[in-house]
Protein backbone atom coordinates (compact mmCIF):
# COMPACT_ATOMS: atom_id res chain seq x y z
CA UNK A 1 0.00 0.00 0.00
CA UNK A 2 1.40 3.37 -1.03
CA UNK A 3 1.17 6.16 1.54
CA UNK A 4 0.17 9.75 0.87
CA UNK A 5 1.57 13.12 1.94
CA UNK A 6 -0.33 16.40 2.03
CA UNK A 7 1.12 18.83 -0.48
CA UNK A 8 0.04 22.31 -1.52
CA UNK A 9 0.99 24.00 -4.79
CA UNK A 10 0.34 27.60 -6.03
CA UNK A 11 -3.19 26.92 -7.40
CA UNK A 12 -4.36 24.83 -4.42
CA UNK A 13 -6.67 26.36 -1.81
CA UNK A 14 -5.69 23.73 0.70
CA UNK A 15 -3.19 20.87 1.05
CA UNK A 16 -4.19 17.81 -1.03
CA UNK A 17 -3.03 14.24 -0.34
CA UNK A 18 -0.55 13.10 -2.98
CA UNK A 19 0.82 9.55 -3.28
CA UNK A 20 4.38 9.00 -2.12
CA UNK A 21 5.34 7.17 -5.32
CA UNK A 22 5.12 10.47 -7.22
CA UNK A 23 8.68 11.76 -7.43
CA UNK A 24 8.94 15.49 -8.14
CA UNK A 25 12.30 17.13 -8.80
CA UNK A 26 12.86 20.15 -6.50
CA UNK A 27 13.21 22.30 -9.61
CA UNK A 28 9.98 21.09 -11.25
CA UNK A 29 6.90 23.33 -11.23
CA UNK A 30 3.41 22.01 -10.47
CA UNK A 31 0.26 24.18 -10.52
CA UNK A 32 -1.95 21.88 -8.46
CA UNK A 33 -1.68 18.57 -6.61
CA UNK A 34 -5.13 17.80 -8.05
CA UNK A 35 -3.37 16.84 -11.33
CA UNK A 36 -2.33 13.59 -9.59
CA UNK A 37 -5.77 12.80 -8.11
CA UNK A 38 -6.38 9.93 -10.58
CA UNK A 39 -3.02 8.24 -9.98
CA UNK A 40 -3.69 4.75 -8.58
CA UNK A 41 -0.35 3.17 -9.42
CA UNK A 42 1.07 0.69 -6.93
CA UNK A 43 4.57 0.71 -8.45
CA UNK A 44 7.44 2.02 -6.26
CA UNK A 45 7.86 4.92 -8.71
CA UNK A 46 4.61 5.83 -10.46
CA UNK A 47 5.34 9.33 -11.76
CA UNK A 48 8.74 10.96 -12.13
CA UNK A 49 8.98 14.67 -13.00
CA UNK A 50 12.38 15.84 -14.17
CA UNK A 51 14.40 18.97 -13.49
CA UNK A 52 12.62 22.12 -14.67
CA UNK A 53 9.59 20.23 -15.94
CA UNK A 54 6.14 21.81 -15.62
CA UNK A 55 2.69 20.31 -14.97
CA UNK A 56 0.30 23.20 -15.59
CA UNK A 57 -3.31 24.27 -15.61
CA UNK A 58 -5.58 21.29 -15.05
CA UNK A 59 -3.36 18.57 -16.47
CA UNK A 60 -4.63 15.15 -15.33
CA UNK A 61 -2.44 12.07 -14.98
CA UNK A 62 -4.79 9.09 -14.95
CA UNK A 63 -2.37 6.30 -14.03
CA UNK A 64 -3.67 2.74 -13.57
CA UNK A 65 -2.48 0.22 -10.92
CA UNK A 66 0.54 -0.85 -13.01
CA UNK A 67 1.06 2.46 -14.82
CA UNK A 68 4.15 4.65 -14.92
CA UNK A 69 4.78 8.14 -16.30
CA UNK A 70 8.20 9.74 -16.76
CA UNK A 71 8.63 13.38 -17.75
CA UNK A 72 12.12 14.61 -18.71
CA UNK A 73 14.05 17.85 -18.19
CA UNK A 74 12.24 21.12 -18.94
CA UNK A 75 9.25 19.38 -20.56
CA UNK A 76 5.93 21.18 -20.31
CA UNK A 77 2.49 19.61 -19.87
CA UNK A 78 -0.09 22.33 -20.37
CA UNK A 79 -3.61 21.07 -19.52
CA UNK A 80 -3.13 17.62 -21.09
CA UNK A 81 -4.64 14.29 -20.18
CA UNK A 82 -2.41 11.25 -19.79
CA UNK A 83 -3.94 7.78 -19.51
CA UNK A 84 -1.25 5.29 -18.52
CA UNK A 85 -1.99 1.68 -17.67
CA UNK A 86 1.45 0.55 -18.89
CA UNK A 87 3.99 3.31 -19.48
CA UNK A 88 4.21 6.80 -20.94
CA UNK A 89 7.64 8.36 -21.25
CA UNK A 90 8.11 11.98 -22.29
CA UNK A 91 11.65 13.08 -23.17
CA UNK A 92 13.46 16.34 -22.48
CA UNK A 93 12.46 19.80 -23.81
CA UNK A 94 9.07 18.55 -25.05
CA UNK A 95 6.03 20.83 -25.17
CA UNK A 96 2.47 19.61 -24.97
CA UNK A 97 -0.41 21.97 -25.60
CA UNK A 98 -3.88 22.05 -24.05
CA UNK A 99 -6.31 19.12 -24.28
CA UNK A 100 -3.65 16.83 -25.72
CA UNK A 101 -4.49 13.22 -24.87
CA UNK A 102 -1.85 10.52 -24.60
CA UNK A 103 -3.52 7.15 -24.04
CA UNK A 104 -1.62 3.87 -23.80
CA UNK A 105 -4.82 1.83 -23.48
CA UNK A 106 -8.53 2.09 -24.30
CA UNK A 107 -9.60 1.33 -20.71
CA UNK A 108 -12.06 -1.33 -21.95
CA UNK A 109 -11.13 -4.70 -23.51
CA UNK A 110 -11.53 -5.30 -27.26
CA UNK A 111 -13.53 -8.49 -26.64
CA UNK A 112 -17.18 -7.48 -26.35
CA UNK A 113 -17.95 -10.36 -23.96
CA UNK A 114 -15.39 -9.03 -21.47
CA UNK A 115 -16.76 -5.50 -22.00
CA UNK A 116 -20.26 -6.75 -21.14
CA UNK A 117 -19.01 -8.38 -17.93
CA UNK A 118 -17.33 -5.15 -16.88
CA UNK A 119 -20.32 -2.96 -17.80
CA UNK A 120 -22.63 -5.11 -15.65
CA UNK A 121 -20.25 -4.63 -12.72
CA UNK A 122 -19.57 -0.94 -13.39
CA UNK A 123 -22.25 0.51 -11.00
CA UNK A 124 -20.46 -1.12 -8.05
CA UNK A 125 -16.92 -0.06 -9.06
CA UNK A 126 -15.33 2.92 -7.24
CA UNK A 127 -16.35 6.09 -9.05
CA UNK A 128 -18.20 3.93 -11.62
CA UNK A 129 -14.95 3.68 -13.62
CA UNK A 130 -13.79 0.61 -15.51
CA UNK A 131 -11.46 -1.70 -13.60
CA UNK A 132 -11.26 -4.30 -16.38
CA UNK A 133 -7.74 -5.27 -17.43
CA UNK A 134 -7.40 -3.77 -20.91
CA UNK A 135 -4.47 -4.34 -23.20
CA UNK A 136 -1.98 -1.46 -22.86
CA UNK A 137 0.91 -0.57 -25.17
CA UNK A 138 3.50 1.96 -23.96
CA UNK A 139 3.80 5.41 -25.54
CA UNK A 140 7.21 7.03 -25.93
CA UNK A 141 7.54 10.71 -26.80
CA UNK A 142 11.10 11.74 -27.70
CA UNK A 143 13.10 14.85 -26.85
CA UNK A 144 12.26 18.30 -28.19
CA UNK A 145 8.82 17.27 -29.49
CA UNK A 146 6.01 19.80 -29.88
CA UNK A 147 2.40 18.54 -29.73
CA UNK A 148 -0.38 20.88 -30.89
CA UNK A 149 -3.65 21.41 -29.04
CA UNK A 150 -6.30 18.67 -28.81
CA UNK A 151 -4.03 16.16 -30.56
CA UNK A 152 -4.41 12.56 -29.49
CA UNK A 153 -1.72 9.86 -29.42
CA UNK A 154 -3.07 6.30 -29.53
CA UNK A 155 -1.65 3.22 -27.74
CA UNK A 156 1.76 1.90 -28.76
CA UNK A 157 2.93 5.01 -30.64
CA UNK A 158 6.54 6.25 -30.48
CA UNK A 159 7.24 9.85 -31.49
CA UNK A 160 10.82 10.55 -32.57
CA UNK A 161 13.05 13.40 -31.38
CA UNK A 162 12.44 16.90 -32.72
CA UNK A 163 9.07 16.14 -34.35
CA UNK A 164 5.98 18.34 -34.43
CA UNK A 165 2.39 17.05 -34.22
CA UNK A 166 -0.22 19.40 -35.67
CA UNK A 167 -3.24 20.59 -33.71
CA UNK A 168 -6.14 18.10 -33.46
CA UNK A 169 -4.14 15.32 -35.11
CA UNK A 170 -4.85 11.72 -34.18
CA UNK A 171 -1.51 9.89 -34.18
CA UNK A 172 -2.01 6.19 -34.95
CA UNK A 173 1.46 5.20 -36.17
CA UNK A 174 5.04 5.90 -35.09
CA UNK A 175 6.35 9.35 -36.03
CA UNK A 176 9.96 9.39 -37.31
CA UNK A 177 12.40 11.93 -35.83
CA UNK A 178 12.37 15.52 -37.15
CA UNK A 179 9.04 15.20 -38.98
CA UNK A 180 5.95 17.37 -38.96
CA UNK A 181 2.78 15.25 -38.96
CA UNK A 182 -0.82 16.45 -39.11
CA UNK A 183 -4.35 15.23 -39.78
CA UNK A 184 -6.71 12.53 -38.63
CA UNK A 185 -5.12 9.99 -39.03
CA UNK A 186 -1.82 11.90 -38.82
CA UNK A 187 0.38 11.83 -41.95
CA UNK A 188 3.87 13.30 -42.53
CA UNK A 189 3.71 16.82 -43.91
CA UNK A 190 7.32 17.94 -43.98
CA UNK A 191 10.83 16.99 -42.82
CA UNK A 192 12.65 19.31 -40.42
CA UNK A 193 16.33 20.13 -40.67
CA UNK A 194 18.39 18.22 -38.19
CA UNK A 195 20.94 20.55 -36.60
CA UNK A 196 23.46 20.16 -33.84
CA UNK A 197 21.83 20.94 -30.50
CA UNK A 198 22.77 24.33 -29.11
CA UNK B 1 -24.73 0.40 0.27
CA UNK B 2 -24.24 -3.23 -0.71
CA UNK B 3 -23.75 -4.21 -4.35
CA UNK B 4 -27.32 -5.58 -4.51
CA UNK B 5 -28.73 -2.31 -3.16
CA UNK B 6 -26.79 -0.27 -5.73
CA UNK B 7 -27.98 -2.49 -8.58
CA UNK B 8 -31.64 -2.51 -7.51
CA UNK B 9 -31.85 1.17 -6.49
CA UNK B 10 -34.19 3.26 -8.69
CA UNK B 11 -32.42 5.35 -11.30
CA UNK B 12 -31.48 8.87 -10.21
CA UNK B 13 -29.85 12.15 -11.18
CA UNK B 14 -27.34 13.07 -8.47
CA UNK B 15 -27.90 16.82 -8.96
CA UNK B 16 -31.67 17.07 -8.62
CA UNK B 17 -35.06 15.90 -9.80
CA UNK B 18 -35.19 14.69 -13.41
CA UNK B 19 -37.48 16.66 -15.76
CA UNK B 20 -40.80 15.17 -16.96
CA UNK B 21 -40.44 12.58 -19.70
CA UNK B 22 -37.26 11.02 -18.29
CA UNK B 23 -37.55 7.30 -17.49
CA UNK B 24 -34.58 5.67 -15.76
CA UNK B 25 -33.98 1.96 -15.10
CA UNK B 26 -32.72 0.47 -11.84
CA UNK B 27 -29.08 1.03 -10.89
CA UNK B 28 -28.80 3.86 -13.42
CA UNK B 29 -27.07 7.06 -12.34
CA UNK B 30 -26.86 10.40 -14.13
CA UNK B 31 -24.41 12.90 -12.66
CA UNK B 32 -23.32 16.45 -13.48
CA UNK B 33 -25.08 19.81 -12.93
CA UNK B 34 -25.54 20.51 -16.67
CA UNK B 35 -27.15 17.15 -17.58
CA UNK B 36 -30.55 18.71 -18.35
CA UNK B 37 -29.53 22.37 -18.90
CA UNK B 38 -30.58 22.15 -22.56
CA UNK B 39 -33.40 19.64 -22.14
CA UNK B 40 -36.50 21.04 -23.91
CA UNK B 41 -38.32 17.88 -24.98
CA UNK B 42 -42.10 17.87 -24.52
CA UNK B 43 -42.51 14.16 -25.30
CA UNK B 44 -43.89 11.81 -22.65
CA UNK B 45 -41.05 9.36 -23.28
CA UNK B 46 -38.37 11.94 -24.15
CA UNK B 47 -35.44 10.12 -22.61
CA UNK B 48 -35.59 6.42 -21.74
CA UNK B 49 -32.51 4.86 -20.17
CA UNK B 50 -32.27 1.16 -19.27
CA UNK B 51 -30.85 -0.53 -16.17
CA UNK B 52 -27.29 -0.24 -14.78
CA UNK B 53 -26.24 2.73 -16.90
CA UNK B 54 -23.59 5.27 -15.90
CA UNK B 55 -24.10 8.75 -17.39
CA UNK B 56 -21.24 10.79 -15.98
CA UNK B 57 -21.29 14.45 -17.06
CA UNK B 58 -23.49 13.75 -20.09
CA UNK B 59 -25.43 16.65 -21.64
CA UNK B 60 -28.88 15.71 -22.90
CA UNK B 61 -29.61 18.56 -25.32
CA UNK B 62 -33.05 17.50 -26.56
CA UNK B 63 -35.30 19.76 -28.60
CA UNK B 64 -39.09 19.73 -28.16
CA UNK B 65 -39.82 16.78 -30.50
CA UNK B 66 -36.80 14.73 -29.43
CA UNK B 67 -36.87 11.14 -28.30
CA UNK B 68 -33.75 9.37 -27.06
CA UNK B 69 -33.61 5.75 -26.00
CA UNK B 70 -30.55 4.17 -24.39
CA UNK B 71 -30.33 0.43 -23.62
CA UNK B 72 -29.09 -1.41 -20.51
CA UNK B 73 -25.56 -1.30 -19.05
CA UNK B 74 -24.19 1.64 -21.02
CA UNK B 75 -21.34 3.86 -19.79
CA UNK B 76 -21.10 7.43 -21.14
CA UNK B 77 -18.57 9.89 -19.77
CA UNK B 78 -18.77 13.62 -20.50
CA UNK B 79 -20.44 13.39 -23.90
CA UNK B 80 -23.12 15.49 -25.60
CA UNK B 81 -26.27 14.10 -27.19
CA UNK B 82 -27.90 16.68 -29.47
CA UNK B 83 -31.28 15.42 -30.58
CA UNK B 84 -33.92 16.99 -32.80
CA UNK B 85 -36.14 13.93 -33.47
CA UNK B 86 -34.63 10.55 -32.68
CA UNK B 87 -31.46 8.93 -31.31
CA UNK B 88 -31.50 5.22 -30.48
CA UNK B 89 -28.61 3.61 -28.62
CA UNK B 90 -28.38 -0.12 -27.87
CA UNK B 91 -27.07 -2.08 -24.87
CA UNK B 92 -23.47 -2.26 -23.57
CA UNK B 93 -22.39 0.92 -25.37
CA UNK B 94 -19.35 2.87 -24.13
CA UNK B 95 -18.71 6.53 -25.04
CA UNK B 96 -15.66 8.53 -24.00
CA UNK B 97 -15.56 12.18 -23.03
CA UNK B 98 -16.27 14.91 -25.60
CA UNK B 99 -18.13 12.51 -27.87
CA UNK B 100 -20.86 14.36 -29.78
CA UNK B 101 -23.91 12.67 -31.27
CA UNK B 102 -26.18 14.81 -33.41
CA UNK B 103 -29.22 13.79 -35.49
CA UNK B 104 -29.48 17.15 -37.29
CA UNK B 105 -27.29 19.97 -38.65
CA UNK B 106 -29.65 22.47 -36.94
CA UNK B 107 -29.50 24.96 -39.85
CA UNK B 108 -30.24 24.67 -43.59
CA UNK B 109 -27.36 24.29 -46.05
CA UNK B 110 -28.76 26.50 -48.85
CA UNK B 111 -27.39 30.06 -48.47
CA UNK B 112 -30.75 31.88 -48.78
CA UNK B 113 -32.54 29.46 -46.48
CA UNK B 114 -29.69 29.82 -44.04
CA UNK B 115 -29.94 33.61 -44.05
CA UNK B 116 -33.66 33.38 -43.21
CA UNK B 117 -32.75 30.92 -40.46
CA UNK B 118 -30.17 33.29 -38.98
CA UNK B 119 -32.76 36.09 -38.94
CA UNK B 120 -35.26 33.72 -37.30
CA UNK B 121 -32.65 32.95 -34.62
CA UNK B 122 -31.89 36.63 -33.99
CA UNK B 123 -33.69 39.07 -31.63
CA UNK B 124 -35.41 40.57 -34.72
CA UNK B 125 -37.57 37.43 -35.04
CA UNK B 126 -39.26 38.27 -31.71
CA UNK B 127 -39.93 34.61 -30.99
CA UNK B 128 -41.58 33.76 -34.34
CA UNK B 129 -41.01 30.09 -35.21
CA UNK B 130 -38.16 28.94 -37.44
CA UNK B 131 -38.66 26.97 -40.65
CA UNK B 132 -38.19 23.19 -40.22
CA UNK B 133 -34.79 21.77 -41.08
CA UNK B 134 -33.96 18.15 -41.86
CA UNK B 135 -33.18 15.55 -39.25
CA UNK B 136 -32.27 11.89 -39.70
CA UNK B 137 -32.21 9.42 -36.82
CA UNK B 138 -28.89 8.22 -35.40
CA UNK B 139 -28.99 4.53 -34.52
CA UNK B 140 -26.21 2.90 -32.52
CA UNK B 141 -26.23 -0.88 -32.04
CA UNK B 142 -25.20 -3.04 -29.09
CA UNK B 143 -21.62 -3.46 -27.79
CA UNK B 144 -20.34 -0.36 -29.60
CA UNK B 145 -17.22 1.41 -28.27
CA UNK B 146 -16.85 5.10 -29.13
CA UNK B 147 -13.49 6.66 -28.23
CA UNK B 148 -13.15 10.19 -26.83
CA UNK B 149 -13.79 13.22 -29.04
CA UNK B 150 -15.43 11.14 -31.77
CA UNK B 151 -18.36 12.77 -33.57
CA UNK B 152 -21.40 10.89 -34.92
CA UNK B 153 -23.31 12.94 -37.49
CA UNK B 154 -26.96 12.79 -38.57
CA UNK B 155 -28.40 9.72 -40.27
CA UNK B 156 -25.56 7.42 -39.23
CA UNK B 157 -26.26 3.81 -38.26
CA UNK B 158 -23.52 2.02 -36.35
CA UNK B 159 -23.72 -1.79 -36.36
CA UNK B 160 -23.35 -4.11 -33.36
CA UNK B 161 -19.87 -4.46 -31.89
CA UNK B 162 -18.29 -1.64 -33.94
CA UNK B 163 -15.24 0.15 -32.53
CA UNK B 164 -14.97 3.90 -33.21
CA UNK B 165 -11.43 5.13 -32.58
CA UNK B 166 -10.84 8.39 -30.66
CA UNK B 167 -11.34 11.55 -32.70
CA UNK B 168 -13.15 9.81 -35.57
CA UNK B 169 -15.66 11.91 -37.56
CA UNK B 170 -18.36 9.39 -38.49
CA UNK B 171 -20.33 10.65 -41.50
CA UNK B 172 -21.47 7.31 -42.98
CA UNK B 173 -22.86 4.02 -41.68
CA UNK B 174 -20.44 1.69 -39.91
CA UNK B 175 -21.02 -2.04 -40.53
CA UNK B 176 -21.24 -4.40 -37.54
CA UNK B 177 -17.92 -5.50 -36.02
CA UNK B 178 -15.80 -2.96 -37.91
CA UNK B 179 -13.20 -0.55 -36.60
CA UNK B 180 -13.16 2.99 -38.00
CA UNK B 181 -10.72 5.87 -37.69
CA UNK B 182 -10.06 9.34 -39.08
CA UNK B 183 -11.81 12.37 -40.51
CA UNK B 184 -13.90 11.36 -42.38
CA UNK B 185 -13.98 7.97 -40.63
CA UNK B 186 -12.71 5.08 -42.76
CA UNK B 187 -12.87 1.35 -42.04
CA UNK B 188 -9.44 0.07 -40.94
CA UNK B 189 -10.45 -3.56 -40.39
CA UNK B 190 -12.58 -5.83 -38.22
CA UNK B 191 -12.49 -5.61 -34.42
CA UNK B 192 -10.31 -8.38 -33.01
CA UNK B 193 -7.43 -7.88 -35.46
CA UNK B 194 -5.44 -5.68 -33.09
CA UNK B 195 -2.09 -7.14 -32.00
Keywords, please?
heterodimer, A: about 200 residues, mainly beta, 8-stranded mixed β-sheet, 6-stranded parallel β-sheet, 1 helix, about 35% strand, B: about 200 residues, 9-stranded mixed β-sheet, 2 helices
Give the C-alpha Rg of chain A. Answer: 17 Å
Would you list the SSEs of chain A in sequence order as H and E?
A: EEEEEEEEEEEEEHEEEEEEEE
Write down the overall geometry of chain A: globular
Helix-strand category of chain A:
mainly beta
Separate helix tally of chain B: 2
Q: Report the uncertain regions of chain A.
A: none
Gap between N and C termini of chain A: 44 Å
Count all strands of chain A and give the number: 21
Summed over residues and divided by their number, the pLDDT of chain A gives a mean of: 94
Counting DSSP H or I runs of 4 or more residues, the number of helices of chain A is 1
Strand order of the largest sheet of chain B: 1-3-5-8-11-14-17-19-20
Tell me what portion of residues of chain B adopts beta-strand conformation.
Answer: 25-35%
Secondary-structure element order of chain B, N to C: HEEEEEEEEEEEEHEEEEEEEE
Which strand order does the major sheet of chain A show?
A: 4-6-9-12-15-18-20-21
Amino acid sequence: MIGTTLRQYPCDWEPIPMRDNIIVDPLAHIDSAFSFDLCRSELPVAIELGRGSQVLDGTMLDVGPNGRVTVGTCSMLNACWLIADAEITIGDYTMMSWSVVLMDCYRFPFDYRKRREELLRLPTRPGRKSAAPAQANPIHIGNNVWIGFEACVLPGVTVGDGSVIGARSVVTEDVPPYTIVAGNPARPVRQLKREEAV
Amino acid sequence: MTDEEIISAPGLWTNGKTPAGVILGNGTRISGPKAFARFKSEQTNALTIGDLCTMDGVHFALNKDARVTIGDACAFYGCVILCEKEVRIGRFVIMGWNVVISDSDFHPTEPNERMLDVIACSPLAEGRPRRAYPSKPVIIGNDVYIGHAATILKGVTIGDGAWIEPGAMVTRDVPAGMRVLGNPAQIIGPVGDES
